[in-house]
Amino acid sequence: MFLPKYPDSPTPPATHTHTPAEPAPDRRSLPSLSIDNKTIATVIVGGVVLTALLAAVAVTAISVAVAAVVLRSLLREQHRR
User: Which long-range contacts (CB under 8 A, 24 or more apart) does 11-14 make?
Assistant: First the structure.
């Protein structure tokens, strides 16, 4: 019912004989990057340092939050007495 109808005999593709009025503009390629072992090592060391700094900030934030909760509970008990 919903099957596509194909032509009985395949027709050859039409040949394109159009000639451009103007020549195609020259394509500019991106400058090639020279990546050596020193560059790779620098990127890896930079990633490790940034990851360590992020971990240090996270640990500091967690420890400050825990200290705030402990101080709050100590101060609350002191006000109750």
Answer: none
CA atoms within 13 A on the CB side of 70: 6
DSSP 10: P
User: Which token pair is 43?
Assistant: 């990127």
Q: pTM here?
A: 0.49
Distance CA 81, CA 79 (A): 6
Secondary structure tally for the chain: helices H, strands E: 1, 0
The domain limits of the chain are 38-81
Tokens 């990057």, located at residue: 33
Query: C-alpha distances in angstroms, 6 versus 3, 66, 69?
Result: 9, 72, 75
Q: What is the pLDDT of residues 11-43, one digit of tens each?
A: 666 676 767 677 767 777 777 777 788 989 999
